[in-house]
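Hi again,

Forgot to attach this to my earlier email, sorry! This is the prediction with adenosine-5'-triphosphate bound. I've pasted everything inline since the attachment limit keeps bouncing my files.
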Amino acid sequence: MSRINGDQRLPRVPTRADKVRVPVWMLLVALAFKGLWLALRGCWRHRVVVGSLVAVLLVVHRVGLAGLGALVGGLALVAVVWWRVHGRSFWPVVWWLWGRARLTFVYRWRWKPAMVHTDLAIRMPTSTGDQVTFDEYFPRIRSIRSSRSVDVLRVELLPGQTPASWAEQAEALRHVFRARRCQVHGETTRFVRVSFHRHDPLTRPVPPASLDDDSDDAGPDPAGTVDPTGARRSSDVGRLVAGLSAVPVGRCEDGTEWTLPVRGSHVLIAGATGAGKGSVLWGLLRGLAPAVRAGLVELWVCDPKGGMELAFGRPLFTRFATTTDSIADLLDDAVARMQSRTAVLAGNTRLHTPTTVEPLIVVVVDEIASLTAYVTDREVKKRIGAALPLLLSQGRAPGVVIVAAVQDPRKEVLPFRDLFPVRVALRMTETDQADLVLGNGARERGARADEIPRALPGVGYVLHDGNPDPVRVRAGYIDDAEIGRIVTHYRPTPRGGWTPDISGYLDDDDPFDGLDQAA
Ligand SMILES: Nc1ncnc2c1ncn2[C@@H]1O[C@H](COP(=O)(O)OP(=O)(O)OP(=O)(O)O)[C@@H](O)[C@H]1O
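Structure tokens for the complex follow:
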């Protein structure tokens, strides 16, 4: 690092001899002032370090080294007690201090050379008539936010710079600051947020999110599903319907929950073989399960792989098709439901609200390319080719949505790829595939789906809420035991509700007879 010397001004280039001669004492005084000015400026720039050093020296001067040790021990004790008693207020302070330390010892330390050598500093030649010098301008770090795995710097752009010019240098900055990954997010104006990811928080499998009514271990509860009076508590229904816009699927890189919208959206999951598409599909099915049990969602599932991936969940599904013929029928029926619903809803509402009478229909398709590119029967291919774009272009508002997985996201394979508003890019085999899934420039903004290691299935990139910057995520790992539990616990009740079995009371002697006689 010491050899990178962008910190220093370029040597002055004399253009003609100095004319003014000054006495030596005046030169020495000027040099002394300059030295003082540089020292004060250095102290101000590194005020945290200088302040800490001065504080330590003062303590040693007053109470000696033993006193300093006692003070450090006391502070450590207070920190441990604070952590145990109120961890929620303790950790933000720790991360703030950690961020200040990294700002001082890592980022400020290497900032100027990094800016010079990545062309993010501006050097302007100026001439005084006697000499040609260079004025230097460096982007300023305005704040830092640190956590266990990432440092986010908020940097003020210099005139003429754009977030794109920073994004181009992300790889170089990553190496200078020895980060695992560097991502640049542009703010609306003037600032960029540069994230240096140090550790990968997604290397361990992510446990599946807890479902709201997991605590209700009573198993399928028909009386609660379709209440005999048809009046399941409206707060529950409201909560379940709201949950359809953010179904928990896994975890984002920043530790927050990763959710996908299903109501009012279609979802495409793209990834090479073994990338973990199954875990995203199962994550969605699992997240939808409480609403399935409540009768607010119907799952119409197509598994062209003959049921290899999804047959496990059969009891949760309203319809399940595995052959291309039966899938074509299923899709035709979905189109018919969509059109009849549209006729009823048109002019009344712009987005269907699921009810037990008219539930949200989620058409799930594993390996959708089997239906669009690899079908050999021309008649069936034509039917599927007509139904899918109709559902994708018109199904969101009347509540018939598609969740599909695909290995190869090319247009020739999936011509209506762009009709999916929500897309997930898991591990890809080629560099341009992240752009195909998430849109042009996604890879440059950080969606390096082709660099996801094989050892991390379920890891991928998504775009959130119109934000062009991709977010790295990992789907929760759902094993066969969990699928079995979900299927048993949440399978829907047959329509018509629950009829209590009272035959035991009516067999030989009617219990009400006695009452009649007594009366
Ligand atoms: N989120 C995850 N966390 C940990 N391991 C996972 C995760 N998702 C999948 N795996 C593991 O990776 C393997 C491959 O996953 P999966 O079958 O879902 O991939 P896929 O993309 O559906 O592949 P294919 O297209 O060949 O069916 C699984 O056997 C599973 O053990």
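Residues 88-199 form a domain with the Threonyl-tRNA Synthetase; Chain A, domain 2 fold (CATH 3.30.980). The mean pLDDT is 84.

That should be everything now.

G.
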